[in-house]
Records
---
Amino acid sequence: MAHVIASADQLDFSITDLPSMPLPTEVLMVRPLHYTVDYVINPHMANQVGNVDTIEAQNEWDLVRALFDQIGLNVRLLEDHDGLPDMVFCANQSLPYIDQEGNRHALMSIMHADQRKREVPYIEQWYRQNGYEAHFLDETKIDDFEGCGDAIWHTGKRMLWGGYGYRSSLTAYESISELFDIPVIALELVDEAFYHLDTCFCVLDEKTVLIYPDAFTDEGLKLINTLFDKVIEASQYEAEELFACNACCPDGRNVIIQQGCTDVNKNLRDAGFSVHEVSTYEFLKSGGSVFCMKQMLW
Ligand code: ARG
């Protein structure tokens, strides 16, 4: 039965009650050989068409890849395709999952923008070649769902946080909750600069989250504050200009984040996290940073 929670008064469990889920051990990255800003599908891309330094973008991507490797993840690589300038943002085309028996699954996205729809079959093919079972949403009932751009695992637990409003539909989470037999906490997004949940919400460990509060409704903030012991808030500058909340903390300890997020980084260090700063300026032009540039796998 679907278990989608959209307000704090619907909460009927606490995080500690939930079954545990292994931490990811691998990460998929898509080499940005054809990355550029070619069209505008989010506010960050406005005025950036044709502005990407493609050599610099590849250098930045190499350093992000090196950091994932350095913190102990097995990095898997796939090449992008001509005419798919956003394929590098491989958090978006799927939602991977490992079940209680250790079988791997991937739910394929229904991209919101027509320009990105052709990315999905390439990612699906990679999953099929790598032992994952591919699943699909019913496109006659669900308009859009952009994978881990909007669906974010609670670290170490069989529960998802699901953003909706710009790129994913609330109805998608009913199907996902049933398919994976997990609760989903639905969060409405209300500021188009924060068009994916991963632009304003970063789970750091089981008890800690980094957010940009103005991207959420009061009800959403109540859910976040109820289910996390510690909520670190980013300023508008660090969240909107530097994508602080698009950081990635795959192991509950190491945080990879766009460089220059001074206040957030201080809070992260004070809370005991190791901070690894990296330049993703070329990707910020497209509205993405570290979290979008990878897909966590098992
Ligand atoms: N230009 C891409 C888009 O608008 C950026 C995607 C960034 N990904 C993310 N998970 N926030 O779709």
---
Amino acid sequence: MKKILDVISEEVCAAFEACGYEASYGKVSVSNRPDLCEYQCNGAMAGAKKYKKAPIMIAKEVVERLQGSALFETADAVNPGFINLRVSGAFVAEYLRAMQSDGQLSVEKAKEPQTIVIDYGGANVAKPLHVGHLRSAIIGESVKRICRFLGHKVIGDVHLGDWGLQMGLIITEVKARQPELVYFDESYEGDYPAEAPFTISELEEIYPTASAKSKTDEQFRAEALEATAKLQNGVRGYHALWQHILNVSIADLKKNYGNLNVEFDLWKKESDAQPYIPEMVDAMKRDGYAYLDQGALIVDVAEESDTKEVPPCIILKSDGAALYTTTDLATIIERRKLFDPDQIIYVVDKRQEMHFIQVFRCARRTGLVKEDTKLKFLGFGTMNGKDGKPFKTREGGVMRLEHLIADIEEEMFRKITENHEVDEAEARQTAKLVGLSAIKYGDLSNQASKDYVFDLDKFTSFEGNTGPYILYTIVRIKSILNKYKEKGGTVEKGHLLAPVGASEKSLMLAITNFNSTVEQAYEECAPHKICSFIYDLANELNHFYHETKILSEEDAARQKSYIELLDLTREVLETSIDLLGFSAPERM
Ligand code: ARG
């Protein structure tokens, strides 16, 4: 469906043209003086010079033309030459009726769908998921859903970290504890045990221990580096042990991401890029891009216009080990081979920006991507605690995601059960849904690139710009609709009437912004635009609800129209929160 602003603009453009002016002057925008009008056109001022006429004269002519239009209730020329517009209730109602019967609630699918890979999540194998990975998962999931809603072919890839030093550290620590394990016997040629020599909780303790050790123990660190290189070179026992680490860890990650309502299409890992590395390196050498510098193989990526230093990309370390950069470059090759994407979006902590500048430049220079392939870095800010420092546990440690979620669910459960008797099992279920909305909305309502403060009290509040408030509004609508049905009414579509009240019209106008909002959120990879849209919409709904007797309305046709307006609002809200990655309960 056309956006309402475009429909209105076309009408005004035609009026400009009919008066002998260039049509493009008729472009309309949302009013910045809502007290005076709903939409405005400033074209008369823009055209004044060209036509050597006072802007107000032009505005008056155009307004005269618009008098017969079915779109407008009022069209006024105002000094020095504004055209102030209010749309007619009949027109808005007609627009909403078209929305009701549109399968996508007015959002048009892309005419030329793109293939888009979204690289998000990015958890590291064998390290517990912590809040740092939360943002990537939440933002990436929403961006994925928005792209998909617009009809693009989207592949969400978790791109696990499984090929770096952390693997060498874990292997070395396991070896120090259990040197007798068969994985370390180089002469062993048989099959390796199917059972992992550790559980997930042991694994989660092994990594931090090893990591701390490597900072003080030179010998240990050297061994870990060697183990990393051995793993990458395919030493059998190391590879088998690594496979155990993966299996144990991925099972746990799937559970955690599942709890967040985050679903990946692909569970690829850094190591999947390994087969592409030798050929990539050869080609970079052969084509003269890569050269040896102090033993390491590097590619220059600095550009003349750089205002800050962009260091060369290190492709291989002097011991031949692949780095984060290497696997990211080789992954681009793999993705091109598997999907031939038009675009790859990386949802990663903004502190990694330099890494991605290097990777993108290197990929372009060395021809890993086609010229028109878009590589986009969607860098997000840090989630801070109330003290303004990166979010920590009460004890000052790194907060495990599981614990954070559990804390929020507990708080929601407390609030839900506070004042009334509810079924415990149902309340737990509801607390889960509302808790997730609190976390996700709290995150997504901020522009991704900004740091934000994780404020439990604020995020879980049923009032203000929060997830629970949005869910509460949806549940309120559902409850009215249910009461209407209990009284024998049926909720249908297509009977919306022109509004009679001001709050009703405001609500209707708010709904019409859905398509432009989703489009903008897509273009700018900006889920926060959807958040501010639904916050406005929820406010309009509640305002309308407080001012209108719905269930006791005596005029049946009017009541039907109210009910359909509520139902459409619900549908738009529920579709929007689905794009954000959460959903609403039936009651709360
Ligand atoms: N595993 C990385 C980290 O924890 C994030 C991976 C992001 N994606 C990528 N293609 N580099 O920092």
